[in-house]
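yo

u said u wanted the structure for the complex thing, so here. seqs first:
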Amino acid sequence: MGANTVEIINEISEKLQKGKAKEVTALVAEALEKGVSPESILNEGLISGMNIIGEKFKRNEAFVPEVLIAARAMNEGLKVLRPALAGAGVKPLGKAVICTVKGDMHDIGKNLVKMMIEGQGIECIDLGVDVAPERVVEAVKESGAKIVCLSALLSTTMMGQKDVIDALKAAGIRDQVKVMVGGAPVTQQFADEIGADCYTLDAASAAQAARAFFEE
Amino acid sequence: MKHTLFDIPPEADGRVLFEYLREQGIILQSDCGGRGTCGKCKVRVIKGRFGAAAAPSEPAIADKDGMILSCEAVCTGEPAVIEIPYGDRGEHEIAVRRATEQPETGASVRIGVAVDLGTTTIAAALVDITSGKTIGTCTKLNPQRTFGADVMSRISASREHLDELQSLALGAVREITEKLCADFAVSAPELITVAGNPTMLHLFCGVSPEGIGAYPFTPAFTHTRKMKGSELKLPAENIVVLPSASAFIGSDITAGAMLLNFDECDGPCLLLDMGTNCEMILKCNGEGLYTASAAAGPAMEGAGITCGVGGVRGAICRVRPEDAAGGISFDTVNDAPPVGICGSGLVDLITALLRTGKIDPTGYLEEEPFILCNGWDGKDIILTQGDVRAFQLSKSAIRAGIEALTAAGGIKVSDLKKIYIAGGLGYYIDKRNAAYVGMLPDSAIDITEAVGNSSLDGAISCLIDPECIKKAEQIADRCENVELNCSEVFNNGFIEHMMF
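structre next:
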């Protein structure tokens, strides 16, 4: 990569970390015009910027609003980049189904995880909140997703995560997917008890774990 | 610091230590309800050994002070001795206060007891019904806390321990009623009125609160319940459980709104009760009453904060920046040696650190942890980055809740003529600082008023005048609940107000 290319990619990463959506989209367009490869813009610009903010979030140095505005900037940048990625034959890493379990209306934590996962180049099928196990099973069958992410924010609804795992087993597709669980009352011990494949403490770690599943 | 040694006999083999102790009447604090995350149920092993709950053949892991989490430890069948450290936090005490103005007691005195059945604290008042005067009051921590700090963990526990939760609540009410009657030498009350959040009222009545635990949040009952004292084995002739409005808006709120005369108040007014859920009731210009419950988390009650405590003796309740150099001074409840930081102290401390730039507008704490002072037991009282983050979630949920509720009522936040804050926090909270950190809007500074325990005072009114029960019922019937999780105004406001 030439010096100019490195410079513009670094700038994309920096503006993304600050959540400057307009500047990110302008820079992505400029980089494409200058002939920078779409894959470099994605991996070394957008995803690398998201990873840095994710690491800061993990260390409690950055908080929910900063991650959300960074993710928003990422999505805006992706809109400009997507046609070029398709043209260059770059495909998403894979698909993940995400939702908040039945009886639970909490949206924000789930959205945060979704955006961070999308920030890793994974396509997310968002089923929303208060989602019945059967709908998760259906979505996995339809999309062929390899990951199921389940959020529960109440100690009264966390058993809903087990209900989804049981429904996946009953449908005979438990082995086709990795089930990731999270949310305030959820612990590693609980995840083990209900037979989930992965528990992470925060959204950034969830995104990294999801990526790792695809790279296995 | 008081310590108690306790023998664990071989019969306890295979039992989780925390649960075994609870059955023996040793109620340890547990904010997380035994999930192994809060660290409050630690005990010291003096003799013997314990296994890890996750893998009983492995030993339970002790921290650097030799303490183990009792909810993660399994008894091994080997006789053991543990030491239970009680802080000076009045865990098992009943604090009785004599009213300053005593009624003239005659032979025909009619006695009643009003109870505010809080998730954390139970408060009660002994009342001379004839004169309407309060003779004495008392408070006791809710013994159900061993099943978790918040209503959701109590609901989870009720699936297996409903009877136990009910008897803990009834036992506490019985104990304080008997103590009040004995201390003030009066006969058993003819009536006990009970206000509380719907979950507490369900548990008090022995009715499963499970419907409250998940969407669509359906309580088993909301109406007034009248029972005989003998049915609940309580030392009173009659019991009246006051009316709730919905799954989270209990008689603690309806009794408070009745007491504050929401029906006749001039212009839009709002009552806030800042607990783990911040309950709010809004009266708009017309007839409409709107309610909501914002998931503020327990930060304002001191739980989930490294050195957090409730508004107990020794709680740091006010913090002031002393000088430009960033020196800080503070007050504690009863001027006792500091035991931790309570909600109002947290608001003040974070304001002071924001003003001196030690916390930046995103909430980043430059030097972590911030050491406030040396505590009563020689350990530092600190504020961590995680504490600031928990506070940010809490204050933005409260602020966004106010915005969503007023929007649902078709008014602007600035249209509010009065904001009442219920609970002890109301007296200690600095309104300017609460606005500075963004918990309350700037327009709140001049119109906010502390109303103390409006739930207990409302229950007292209902004791004296049965018409007040009817008024509370009318309020409960008219409340329209706003589901904040589905509110766009709430979700946007929650993100927006998370920064400072």
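Chain A has two domains: 3-87, 95-215. Residues 91 and 208 of chain A are 18 Å apart (CA to CA).
cya
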